[in-house]
Amino acid sequence: MKVTTTLSAAAAISLVAGLTLPLDPAGAATVADADTPAGDTHISEIAYTLDTDFVEIAADPGTDVSGWTVGSVTRGGSVQAQENTTTVPEDTTVGDSGALALEVPITNSVRAGSAADGDYGSSAFVIDESGALLDFQQIGGTVGGKGVTGTKNTFTPDPVIGQDAEPTGATASGGDSIQLVDDAWTSASPTPNALPDSDDDGDGDDGDGDDDGDGTTPGEVTPIADIQSTGEESPLQGKKVTTRGIVTAAYPEGGLDGYYIQTPGSGGPDDATPGASDGVFVYSPDTVADVDIDDHVEVTGTVSERYGQTQISVSVSGLTTLDEPAEAVKPDEDAFPDDPAEREALEGMLLQPGEALTVADNYNTNTYGEVVLATGEGTLPQATDVERPGSPEAKALEQENLEREVVLDDGATVNFLKSDTDVPLPYLSKDAPVRVGASASFTSPVVLGFDHEKWRFQPTTRLTGDNAEAVQPTRFTDTRTDAPESVGGQVSLASFNVLNYFTTTGDQLDGCEYYDDREGNHITVRGGCDTRGAATEESLKRQETKIVTAINKVDTSVVSLMEIENSAAFGEDRDAALSTLVDRLNEAAGAEKWAFVPSPTQVPSDEDVIRNAQIYQPAEVAPQGVSTILDDEDAFSNAREPLSQAFAPKDSAGEVEKDKTFVTITNHFKSKGSGEGPGNEDSGDGQGASNADRVMQAKSLVDFAADRQEAADSDFVYLLGDFNSYTQEDPMQVFYEAGYKDVAAEKTKKSTYVYQSRTGSLDHVLALDTSTDGDASTGAQNTGTEAALPSSGFDAITGADVWNINSVEPLALEYSRFNYNVADLFAPDQFRASDHDPVVVGLFDEDSEDGADEGSEDADSSDSAGSDGGGSNADGGSSAADGGASASDSDGTNAGSNSASGSDAAGHLPRTGADPTVMMAIAAGLIAIGASVVLLIRRRRLS
C-alpha cells in the first residue's frame, strides 16, 4: 500500500491539532491505487511513547490535506474511541519539508515478532478527503507478515474495515518514535514535520566507516543469490544493496508497481546457486515505466520482505540501464515442486512448468483475476469428503493440499468488482472455459512470486482479456459435456439446487437492497426484504434461461429441487413459483413434458421463504398418493423441511407398475456458516458450524423415511438434496448406520461443490440398502413370483453421474454477475445455472421383472399415506457451505470415500458391500433352501 518517494527534510514545526472525526467519510471503502492523485503519499513517522503522540504524513510540498482523516486502531483492529482519530482542518497543506505531523492519541499496545501476526498491534492510518485509504501501518509485527485487520465498530472509519495494516517490524524506545528511513522502519528521536534523515546522504554516520548505513562497500555489486540466500527470508533485510540482472517481467500498471530481475545466464537445467534463487522483485513505482523486458539493469535500493516475498525498493535515482551485453535468462522447465524449500529456491525466477497442473478453483477469477492450480493428479479434495473429520488422515490430506496449491495470477492487484470494471477479465471468455478439474498447460514462461501467503505464477506483464492472445501463459482443456453421462434404467432421479429461484423480484417489494452491475442497474437482492433472487424481471429471465436449459438437459423422470421460492410467504399460493418454473420448462421443451408435485394440504406453520419441491415427467412416472412434509419443529427449525412423494414407473404402454413404487424425499439441511447452541460452534475439525443440528436433522429424516417406506410398502427409498455435509462427516454417518448408501460416492469419482479451492460433495442421493436384512424387507417386490425385482433401493440403481455444470464453472458466468465487467460472459446455456451440481441416478434395469397390475393408475388412486402436516422453520438463508462458490470432476481425488466395505483406521463406516459373516450366513441359508425348493422366476423384457 505504501508508495516510496524522495522528499527533502526540513526543520520541525508545531503539530496540527486534531478535530472531531466524521464517522462516515464520503466515498469510503476504497484503497487508493498508486496512480491516484494521493498515490505518492505515505506515513513517514509514528510517535506513541511521547506525552503528545502523532502520525506524520509525507507528501509533496503544497499538497492540500484538508478534510483528511488520520487515526489509530488498537490491537483488536478497531478505533478505541473518537479521540483516536483526527480530521485535518480546512486550508491545511504540506509545507516545504514534505512532511506534516498530526496529533492523535495512539494506544501503547504493540508487540514485535510473529506473535503479532494478524491480530495484535496498534496501527496508524491515513484517509484522504474522498474516503480513499492511503496508508495503514502497524507498529511492530513482522515485516512481510500479516498485519492487523481493521474491525468494524462505532468509531472505525469504513475505509479501514477489512483492510490489513502493513507491519513495520519496528517498535520505539521510550521517548523515541518509529521512522521510515530508506524504506525501512527504525526507532529514533522524533522529528515531527521533518522527514526522517537518511544515513547515506552525507550528514550522518552509522559508525562503520563506510557511510552507507549497512556495512557494505559503496558501489559493490551483490549477487541476487546472496540477497535471497537459502532461507525463507533475506539476511540483508533493511540493508541497502546494489545488484544487477535481466528484466524478466514488468508491471507498470495494475498495482504491482515493479519488475523482476534475474541473474544473467541463470535458470534452465544448470543451477550455479543451489538452494538460493537468482531472481528478485524490484518495487519501484518511480522506475517501472523506464524498463523493458530483457533490459540489463543495475539497481540500488533497500532489501525487505513484503508479505513473504523478498524485494528491493528502488527510488528514481536507483536504476541504471546497462549497455554491456549479458547472457540471456533461461526458464526452469522442470515440474513445479511441492516442497516449500524447492519453491523458495525459485522465488522471483522465470519458469515454465514442464508438466500440466489442474485447475482447483476459479472463484476469485471474477474478483482478482486469480486461478488456483494444483500440482500432481486431480483437484484438491475437501478433507472431510474423503476422511473422517479430525482424523490424522484428514489433517495429512489438508497439509498435502496446502503444499500442492499455487495461484495463477494476472500481474495485477486490482479488485475487478470495485475498480477496472471496464478492463476485460483475464483468463475468462465464452469460447475457452476455465473449469475446476481442467488441465492447465503452460505455453510461455511465468515468474514465481509470493504474496498474501500464496505462491503465485505471474505472467511477464499484466494480463487482461484484451491482450490474452499475446500474454496469457496457459492453455486449459475444455471438459464440458452437453448432457449427463448415461445412467441407464427405466426411470431416473436427480437433485438440483436452483440458486434462490424467486418469481417475486426485488422491485415488487419495498425495502430491498441490491447488488448492482457496473452501470448501477439492480441485478440481485442482497437484503432488506424477504425475496432473495433476481432484482428485476429482466434479471429473472436470465436466471430462468439457465435453470430451464439445465433441467431440460438433465431430463430425468423426477427432479428434487432446493432453494425455490415459497410463494406463500408473499401472499400467493405456495406453489406459484414452482408452477411458473414448470411452465417455463414446458415452453422450452415445446410440450407438456413436466408437472409439479402439489403441496400437501397441511404444511408447516412457520416456513422459510425458500423450500423444497419436486417435479416429474408424467409420461415416465405416476405419483402414488399425495406429498408429505416432515413435521419436526425441533430438528428443522433452522432448515427446510423434507418433502416426500412416492412414484411408480410407467411401462412402454403407459401402464403404471405399482410393484416398482419408489419413495423420494427432498432435503436441504442447515448450512455450515452459522450456528447456535451446544455442539453447533465450529470446532475446527472441518465440519463447520451447526454440525449438531445437521446430525439431529439426519436422525429425524431417517425416522421419517422409515415411515414413508412403510406407507408406500416399498424398499425403494431415496433421499436427495443438499445435506450441507461432506461425504465422511457426522450427519452422513447417521445415514450409513441406518442402511443407506451414497450413490454418487459409490458409483462415481465426481463431486458436487467447490469451496475455498477444495472439492467435495454437499449434495447426495442416498439409497436404502436392505440386501443384508434378510426378512426385514417389507416391500411387495420381495414376495411371490416377483423375486426378480431388485431387493432394495440401492440394488435398483443402474448407474449414476454428477453432471459438473455449475460448481466447476467460473462465478463470472452466473446470471448474478451479469454486466459486472465489460466482458460479456453471459450465455443462455446450462453452465453456472447454480453453484451446486446435479446428481443423476438411473433406476430399474429394463430387463427386470415388473409384476405390474394391468391398467394405469392416477395420482390419487393409491392407498399410500397422505400429509402429516406441521413443522417449523425459523431461520432464513441460502445454505451453501459457508457461502462460497464453486466442485469438480475430482479425477480420482475422492478415492478414499470409494473404498471397500469395513471400518478402517480413520473411522469410516461401511460404504459398499456387507458384513462378510452376514453374507456367509445368508449364502449358507440359500444353499440349504436351494436343495429343496425350485424357484420359478418369470421375467418380462420391457420394450
Shape: elongated
Give me the Rg, rounded.
32 Å
Number of helices: 12
What can be said about the biggest beta sheet? 8 strands, mixed
Strand-residue proportion:
15-25%
Query: Regions with pLDDT < 50 over 5+ consecutive residues?
Result: 1-14, 17-39, 199-215, 774-787, 850-943
- Average pLDDT rating: 84
Q: Would you tell me the structural class of the helices and strands? A: alpha+beta
Spatial sequence of strands, sheet with the most strands = 20-25-26-23-22-21-24-27
Number of strands: 43
Could you tell me how far the N terminus lies from the C terminus, measured between alpha carbons in angstroms?
Answer: 71 Å
Determine the fraction of residues in helical runs and give it as a percent range.
Answer: 10-25%
